[in-house]
Write a structure and sequence with these properties.
The chain is mostly beta strands. The chain is built from no helices and 22 strands.
């Protein structure tokens, strides 16, 4: 398992890197950290993270860190964080972490609440479209105990981690449009609502149509505030959507997508149609 560590403090700014070492054992050696008396619980993170094609996405997490009397979580060379991973905990196929470590606030002499963010940069993290879906969340802590992070005696470095503390969905951001017409329309005539369902493609940085998905045509009558579903249609091979209905009342028409594990739910902006 990896250890995230501080490389150096330069002009008060921490530079972060990854220090790869074997999995922690109960007794340290010159090349292996010892298992630190630290445990993690109560990890909370958003149930889903929506990631588009360009903008940085930051998601907050929090957890309880419990430690023994010999662990100083306030030390300048003690670091902890949470991160997302896919695959097995001991040998993940991919991880997503934060720009900085978590910040911990003491609750009792042996517990602290730690908060931080997972920061995702589309295009820079080499996300594949197949990376959408469920990710596991783990937490870790390292104490250098006065050792030089660039050349430590690993037997004096403490480490603790825990996997499978939570799960979250990493989703490809979705968009949905709707245009209803004709405007105005004669009562009893047909109203046609067209739109397009698309989602982020992390591999080319564009949005492409989301095909063969169920999309609801919804309406709310002027003077009310609640949409009701009129019918359900399916997006075509380009993500285009088309649905018809009979004009009865003035009101707003929209399209609505319920979402999948890889793509979040989205509602189009309602389009008002005047019925004569």
């Amino acid at each position: 398992m990896r250890i995230r560590a501080t490389v150096a403090a330069v002009s008060g700014a921490l530079a972060l890197s990854v220090l790869a070492v074997p999995a922690a054992h109960a007794t340290g050696t010159s090349g292996t950290p010892y298992t630190m008396d630290v445990s993690f619980s109560n990890l909370k993170i958003a149930s889903a993270i929506k990631v588009g094609t360009t903008n940085k996405v930051s998601t907050t997490y929090s957890y309880t860190l419990t430690h023994g009397s010999g662990v100083n979580v306030a030390a300048s060379d003690f670091y902890t964080d949470a991160y997302l991973y896919r695959g097995s905990f001991d040998a993940p196929s991919k991880t997503l972490e934060g720009d900085d470590y978590a910040t911990c606030k003491a609750v009792t002499s042996t517990t602290a609440t730690c908060t931080g963010t997972v920061d995702i940069y589309p295009g820079e993290h080499s996300l594949k479209n197949t990376d959408s879906g469920s990710w596991s969340v783990g937490a870790e802590a390292v104490a250098f105990n006065g050792q030089d992070p660039e050349n430590p005696d690993m037997s004096k470095v403490g480490f603790s981690d825990r996997g499978s503390m939570a799960t979250t969905l990493l989703q490809r951001y979705s968009k949905l449009t709707a245009n209803a017409g004709p405007e105005p329309v004669v009562k009893g005539k047909t109203i046609t609502t067209t739109g397009k369902l698309s989602r982020a493609n992390w591999e080319d940085g564009l949005y492409h149509g989301y095909t063969s998905q169920s999309v609801k045509l919804q309406f709310y009558k002027a003077g009310t505030t609640t949409y009701t579903t009129v019918k359900t249609v399916t997006s075509d091979s380009s993500g285009n959507v088309k649905a018809t209905a009979t004009a009865q009342y003035d009101g707003y028409w929209r399209l609505s997508f319920a979402g999948t594990s890889t793509t979040p739910a989205v509602n189009a902006t309602g389009d008002y149609v005047d019925v004569k």
